[in-house]
From TrEMBL:
Superkingdom to which the source organism belongs: Bacteria
The protein, known as: AraC family transcriptional regulator
Molecular-function GO terms, alphabetical: DNA-binding transcription factor activity; sequence-specific DNA binding
One Pfam family cited in the UniProt record for this chain: HTH_18
Keyword annotations: Activator, DNA-binding, Transcription, Transcription regulation
Amino acid sequence: MARIPQLTTTLAYDRYMAGQRLVSSVDREWRHLVLRSYLEPARQDLLEAPGLRDFTLMTLASGAEHLERNLGGRWQSADMRVNDLWFVPPAPISWRWHSLSDEPLSTLHVHIERDLIDSVAQQLGLDASRELSLGDAMRFNDPLIAALLAALHRAARDPADSRLYVDTLVHALAAHLLQHYSGGNGARRGSATWTERLVPRRIRRVTDYIRANLAEDLAIAELAEQAGLSSFHFARVFRRETGETPHQFVTRLRLEEAARLLRATDRTVLQIALEVGFENASHFSVQFKRGYGATPLAYRLRG
């Protein structure tokens, strides 16, 4: 049997898994994270896997299991239920488990790039000594993390969900992890603040930029740069000022412009989809029907 390496990449980690892959974000144009889910065997006597360079969280998507792991020569165990979370340390681990229910056993794995975590820490004004770690926790519970992982899982299964939406989720997840699961000397006071009275003007600058660039691939980092704010603070104040998340705002404007073009021009659905920033006609049609209750062609025929 080949020796397990100390560390491997997120893309290579798939080869060490025992289950049948159900969902993968590898082929999606996502930034900063990889998500996979697996249908696991009801019983696994031993699974050996290397450590991961990327920060990795796992949770049960369905079923229940008695899970055991050997980390550093010591076996630990816990009974895991849906939404229970566990952290994969950057070291080789041996696993074994058996199902505790009649439901299919499936797991969700989310791998976040270390560079993103470092970037969000800097945006939050955290000291360089602030290290994100969940230590040796075999199992922990955090309803917000569980909800964010579930939202990412839904996004991976839905081709209509945009990269901007996923960017928002992963930045929120990284910020939450840093605020609640990191140690060090704390935040640098004053370095991450901004003049509150300038926020409305900065958000107007962003909304004007969005209107002028609807066809572009708009990312949270790019919009935050227009506002002169960190990505984390930008998403929060944008919603406060507009009543919508950046993703909701961009999608609404794209659909409004598409509706206008459907009424006023004879351009094809594909031409309109690309002109207002959707990846393809199928993605556009799904989103348009969600927003207007009719397909683009049906909307055009209604006049």
